Automatic annotation (TrEMBL):
Pathway: Isoprenoid biosynthesis; isopentenyl diphosphate biosynthesis via DXP pathway; isopentenyl diphosphate from 1-deoxy-D-xylulose 5-phosphate: step 3/6. The gene is ispE. Catalyzes the phosphorylation of the position 2 hydroxy group of 4-diphosphocytidyl-2C-methyl-D-erythritol. NCBIfam families: ispE. This is 4-diphosphocytidyl-2-C-methyl-D-erythritol kinase. It comes from Pseudothermotoga hypogea. Belongs to the GHMP kinase family. IspE subfamily. ATP binds at P97, M98, G99, S100, G101, L102, G103, G104, A105, S106, S107.
Length: 268
């Protein structure tokens, strides 16, 4: 967190799913996943300014926010757990495309929780429970870097950070609903990814390109490419740049092309 004039700023980094498989559907309607997540140095920036409107939040964004505002949700969930004796104005500078699979909204929510925890003197570890209630990807974004993520997203195992890789992004601009993508899954789609996921992580650490290519996986890639031809085209464009691997991130719409050098964004 950085103090800026009368307020503070936080960066909210984007993420890639280097691996994403669904292992089953839960009784609560969510799905259990296993994934290898990695942040990259594309980021939104949030400016937090305290106000006298106790318990109230106002979010100003440079782009219209469609659907639920997770920054507001994070603030209201935090208030359910801890007293807040101030109001908050959040100025959100979006750079991460919405509906892209890069996790921008969840990362913004995590940045908000980090600010609130520091402002209120709450240990970082104590806000994990709140993060889980705000959104499935929010717990990972509290930590960032490289991690294996399991359950519905609440089980985050941080790993020594992968370094030495860059990516170019191919984002066709269609918005893919996460709920719709999950609804298209069939039970026969579960547990199809190569195992163990730790071998893919090891391949990244050792720069074993052939193993990275063989073990990279996203359960949603084939499904969303069938429904959204624009994503299929973006994937073909990514492969045409001769990357180590090209793959959908999240439920889409963005595709990343992985390379060791010369990509626009770096692992961070």
């Amino acid at each position: 967190m950085v103090e800026v004039g009368a307020g503070f700023s936080e960066k909210a980094y984007a993420k890639l799913n280097l691996y994403l498989d669904v292992v089953g559907k839960r009784s609560d309607g969510y799905h259990d996943i296993v994934g290898l997540f990695q942040t990259i140095d594309m980021y939104d920036e949030l400016f937090f300014i305290q106000t006298e409107d106790v318990g109230q939040i106002v979010v100003e964004s440079n782009v219209p926010i469609e659907g639920q505002n997770l920054v507001e949700r994070a603030f209201r969930k935090f208030k359910e757990f801890y007293p807040v004796d101030f109001g908050l104005k959040v100025v959100l500078k979006k750079r991460i495309p919405m509906g892209s699979g890069l996790g921008g909204a969840s990362s913004d929510a995590a940045a908000t929780l980090r600010f609130l925890a520091q402002r209120c003197g709450i240990p970082h570890s104590d806000i994990l429970e709140i993060a889980v209630e705000v959104g499935s990807d929010v717990p990972f974004f509290l930590i960032g870097g490289t991690a294996i993520v399991e359950g519905k997203g609440e089980k985050v195992t941080p790993l020594p950070q992968i370094s030495g890789y860059t990516v170019d992004l191919f984002c066709p601009g269609v918005s893919v609903s996460t709920a719709k993508a999950y609804s298209m899954l069939k039970e026969t789609d579960f547990k199809k990814g190569p195992r163990p996921i730790e071998r893919l992580y090891e391949a990244y650490v050792k720069h074993e390109h052939e193993v990275i290519l063989r073990m990279s996986y996203n359960v949603f890639q084939t499904i969303v490419c069938e429904v959204y031809p624009e994503i299929k085209t973006a994937l073909a464009q990514a492969w045409s740049t001769d990357p180590i691997v090209a793959q959908l991130t999240g439920t889409g719409c963005c595709v990343f092309a992985l390379r060791e050098h010369s990509g626009l964004y770096s692992f961070c």
